[in-house]
Write a structure and sequence with these properties.
Layout: H1 3-18, H2 22-29, E1 33-38, E2 41-46, H3 49-58, H4 60-70, E3 76-81, H5 85-95, H6 124-135, E4 144-148, H7 154-168, E5 174-178, H8 179-191, H9 198-208, E6 212-216, H10 225-240, E7 244-249, H11 261-267, E8 271-275, H12 280-293, H13 300-309, H14 314-331, H15 337-344, H16 357-368, H17 372-376, H18 382-398, H19 403-409, H20 415-428, H21 433-448
Parallel strand pairs: 2-3, 4-7, 4-8, 5-6, 6-7
Antiparallel strand pairs: 1-2
The structure holds adenosine-5'-diphosphate (ADP) and magnesium ion.
């Protein structure tokens, strides 16, 4: 049997257990056929265009996470429709030149320490809480729940706790695990004979004998009721024994969909600390620290330029920095603003310059025939709330702005409100035609301006 067929069979085995409705599984998942592996992507063929859309929208994340947990070399899937295969191939090859999506390994990276974490207003709460937990695990904030956007340092902070503990209290049993792996281990142990079998016991023993349990990207337990149930019991056993639990997530507990209430309330028991996108000063400090770690000195004008160009994702900022340093070495040139500009050439310009949030707000008002005052105001009737949510969605889609900034632009709203609106609209796309139409029309109005 081909390698890709074998991998897919394994994935199917897990998906069948994870997806609680048999009909859903039979209609959308079982009908997919593995046809190839290109680069790091598994290519799956769907029987129709609508199947493809549905799978992309609702199951792709799950499929990818199961896949990653089984095979570290395959990090993505591409869903195609029968007959589409050949023309897709070129596209896929092009795309595989992009950096592979980051797979969090099951180990604590010694590189992530408190010392090399730059503290700013955006992350000071999470940092302080993490330090406190590293000093006295199990005593203060239990669980510690850290959340924030992609690439803002959640994994770094979490693993810093692990590294600090290893140094100060090496006898403690500390485990770091991405939630996809936790899910996978649980499912595997059940598959091998049920949770009361030896495998089930091994799983329980492993987790319930820990002193510190860190689960990263916990949002992935969404929609997995059995794993959630097991996690709930693990949580209770550990906290009752005074052991420390730390979670990291890309959103607040209240924003994780399909999560059992009792687990959500456990997540909220201790301290919830958010990480916001860094301000200019912190971005510059981070770049400087990362450059120094490579024994490279970069002048302030270059740091400022780079911090201006990339505002929301520190991981991206870091990869840009590495590229500039590498090019300077390669061409044997000093690191100047010109060189940085040259490096940024391939990256798209920030769209804020071309299109302002004001344009989106104006066009949304015109489209729905509501006043700007109402759109940005406090009224809660559906006639206003829907346009407001759509406006937030379009801004967030067209502009790389932090949620807090979007909140400010939208009449001083909280970032959680912004996130909620964004997710709400995203969940309706493809389901409610009015939304699809409004979004397309508003965008067209903006482009024609
Ligand atoms: P997340 O888990 O939130 O997606 P990571 O923890 O993986 O993000 O961080 C992405 C990269 O950015 C890492 O290389 C990390 O070291 C770096 N980083 C993030 N925040 C900071 C910070 N405050 N100081 C130094 N480096 C940071
Ligand atoms: Mg992470």
């Amino acid at each position: 049997m081909n390698e890709f067929k074998k991998i897919w069979l394994d994935v199917l085995g897990i998906l069948e257990r994870e997806i609680s409705s048999t009909i859903t599984y039979d209609v959308w998942i079982k009908t997919l056929e593995a046809v190839d592996i290109v680069g790091e992507k598994l290519i799956l063929c769907a029987p129709s265009e609508s199947n493809k859309l549905k799978v992309n929208r609702e199951f792709k994340t799950l499929i990818v996470s199961v896949l990653k947990s089984l095979n570290a070399l395959i990090t993505d899937v591409e869903i195609i429709v029968s007959g589409e295969y050949e023309k897709q191939e070129e596209l896929i090859e092009e795309k595989s030149e992009e950096l592979p999506a980051k797979v969090e390994a099951n180990v604590i990276n010694p590189k992530y320490t408190f010392d090399n974490f730059v503290v700013g207003k955006c992350n000071q709460l999470a940092y302080a809480a993490a330090r406190a937990v590293a000093e006295q695990p199990g005593n203060l904030y239990n669980p510690l729940f850290i959340y924030g956007g992609v690439g803002l340092g959640k994994t770094h902070i979490m693993q810093s706790i692990g590294n600090a503990l290893r140094k100060q209290q090496p006898s403690l049993k500390v485990l770091y695990i991405p939630s996809e792996k936790f899910v996978n281990e649980y499912v595997m142990s059940v598959r091998k004979g049920g949770i009361s079998s030896d495998f089930g016991k091994q799983f329980r023993e492993k987790y319930r004998n820990l002193d510190v349990l860190m689960i990263d990207d916990i949002q992935f337990v969404s929609k997995k009721p059995e794993t959630q149930n097991e996690l709930f019991h693990t949580f209770n056993d550990l906290t009752q024994a005074g052991k420390q639990i730390i979670f990291a997530s890309d959103r607040a507990p209240s924003e994780i969909p399909d999560l059992e209430d009792r687990l959500r309330s456990r997540f909220e028991w201790g301290l919830i600390a958010d990480i916001q996108p860094p301000d200019m000063e912190t971005r510059i400090a981070i770049l400087q620290k990362k450059a120094l770690a490579q024994k490279t000195v970069i002048t302030n004008d270059v740091l400022t330029y780079m911090a201006q160009r990339l505002a929301t994702n520190i991981r991206e900022m870091e990869s840009m920095l590495n590229k500039v340093i590498l090019l300077a070495k390669l061409y044997n040139k000093p690191i100047t603003v010109e060189l940085a500009q040259e490096t940024f050439k391939d990256y798209s310009e920030p769209t804020e310059e071309a299109i302002g949030a004001e344009d989106v707000i104006d066009c949304t008002c015109k489209y729905f025939d509501v006043s700007k005052e109402d759109l940005l105001g406090k009224k809660r009737d559906k006639k206003i709330v829907e346009p407001r949510q759509i406006c937030i969605y379009v801004i967030s889609e067209m502009m790389p702005l932090p949620l807090t900034t979007i909140g400010e632009l939208m009449g001083g709203r909280d970032h959680t409100t912004v996130l909620h609106a964004k997710n709400k609209v995203a969940s309706l796309i493809g389901k409610d035609e009015r939304f699809d139409k409004a979004i397309t029309d508003i965008k067209n109005m903006i482009y024609k301006k």
